[in-house]
Amino acid sequence: MKRIMITGALGQIGSELTLKLREIYGSDNVIATDIRKNESEAAQSGPFETVDVTDLNAMVETAKKHNVDTVMHLAALLSATAEAKPVFAWNLNMGGLMNALETARELNAQFFTPSSIGAFGPTTPKDNTPQDTIMRPTTMYGVNKVAGELLSDYYFHKFGVDTRGLRFPGLISYVTPPGGGTTDYAVEIYYEAIKNGRYTSYIDRGTYMDMMYMPDALNAIINLMEADTAKLVHRNSFNVTAMSFDPEEIAVEISKHISGFEMSYQVDPVRQKIADSWPNSIDPTAAQNEWGFKAEYDLAKMTKDMIEKLRQQL
Ligand code: VAH
């Protein structure tokens, strides 16, 4: 039976991944950790430990205490926050990752950490971006993600740690809103549409980015981690995506459910610059071929579900 430690368990991915893994592997086998506890279901529904990922000893001791065989490292700053505090972002994102990899090495544990479409840069082919291509990101977040992919591959080749990763697109969810990302407009728009019937986008019309609904992201993590290691040609990290849209297209889809919805624009130059450096769409063929990646939600299906769930919640 898997015994999984998750860092950043109370963040956008972690708060839902923790619950999903507890359903599958049993609550007591999923140890949620984060820098501080809160009242969320992820923190309350099973083992929780307060862990600062920049403290190697704390991470190793917690992993040993719970006898984990899998480390899922999610604690990190997202793109916009990292761009505002680049030195802090390097220390947290890279220091935390190194500590998580060292913990996995010491416990001979399987390892997962997310990369991102943010690992690509302005010289990367923008449409149907290949799995193996030029990666010269111009953001601190992107530098962290490319370095993180290389470091995770190094731990596989040098120490035999079973490291695996996914280059996630923008993730959309109704449980825990993301903090400090560039793609967050695609989450905020749903909340604002329901609460106020309008949204002012900080990303300009015509800016296409890959996106994915959280249920598909969670299934991708679980399916990758369960995949037969002999079939993996790549490891860190696989392109995965479900859809690519611009703010106009998501606004049109929302208008089908909320009549009179009004979209306006007040572009944030910092986040627009980040978004412009990323691909318009990436190619998930390697993930499909090597471990059967498949997304269930497109923009229409996601929008219907998001609005239904948020109407109940708000
Ligand atoms: C961000 N949501 O915007 C994250 C993600 C692809 C974007 O990495 O920073």
Please characterize this protein's 3D structure:
The chain has 314 residues and is α/β, with parallel strands linked by helices. The protein folds into two domains: 4-167 and 213-239, Rossmann fold, CATH 3.40.50.720; 170-211 and 243-313, UDP-galactose 4-epimerase, domain 1. Helices cover 44% and strands 16% of the residues. The site of (3R)-3-hydroxy-L-norvaline (VAH) has 13 residues, from strand 7.
The helix content is 40-55%
| CATH superfamily (homologous) name of the largest domain | NAD(P)-binding Rossmann-like Domain
Number of domains: 2
**SS content category:** alpha/beta
Tally the helices: 12
- Provide the β-strand percentage band: 15-25%
**Strand and helix order:** EHEHEHEHHEHEEHEEHEEHEHHH
CATH C-level label of the largest domain: Alpha Beta
